[in-house]
Each structure stands twice: as structure tokens, then as C-alpha cells.
Amino acid sequence: MSERHPMFLFYFSITLAIASSAFYHFVAKSTPHNVNFTVSLLVTYAVAFIVTLFTFYFFPAPNGVLAEIKNLNWASIALAIAIVGIEFGFLLVYRSGWNLGIAAVLVNVVASLILVPVAILVFKDKLTWINIAGIFVCLIGLLMLNWKK
To answer: How far apart are the C-alpha atoms of 88 and 5, rounded to whole Å?
Structure first.
């Protein structure tokens, strides 16, 4: 798909990520408070497994699933642990009374700020002066989000 339509994939991917993230936070905040976390996540991941199976239609594994599994590294297991941490974390955040908009922004900005040195040191990403200015704007935004009247 990406070889034939690189611009479509470029814009579709970010749109999907943004829409899914917004929907995720809405649904996480809407999860009933009287439901056990583990049961909620078991259902979530069972449905996610089924939805993921359907994505093979759009992104088939020409050499087969087992061949693809052999190409995996530690990142798939670590990603699963991170996802469960995010899920439990946000369920706890919203159950403890955090505001929907503030919690999502706070977590994403702080996580992004933590990732800046990782991106530079591990992935050799480059920052421009505009990027650095944006980081300071994010820091000011965090102060404003948490400002008490």
C-alpha cells in the first residue's frame, strides 16, 4: 500500500492516529467505574485481536504469519507491556477524577518531552530552533494547564 500511495498513507496514518487517540480517551473516560479493570481489558484485547485479524485484508503477510513472527524482536513484547500500562494508567486517571482534556494533554506532552532526549540520543533525530521553541511552548502550556485560579 505505501509504495503505490505514499501521500495517502502519510495523511491517512496521522489522521487515524489522531482520531483513534481522541476516541480512545472518550471511551476510557466512559468505562463504568464499577467494572473490574482486568475484565474490561480482557474484553478490550479480545476485540482488538479480532479487529487486528481483519487488517490482514489490507496488509497481508505474503510469506505467512509464522514467517513474520520469526522476524519479531523484543519490541513487540515491550509494546504489549507499554499498552497495558497505558490502558491501566488512563482507566485509573479517569476513575480518580481527572478532567478528560487535561489528563490526555498532560500525559502526551510530558511523554513527548521525555522522548526528546531519547529521539536525539538513540534515534539520532535532529532538532531545529523552531522545535526547541515548540518545546518551550509545551512547557508553558503545562504550567497553564495546571494553573490554579
So the answer is: 36
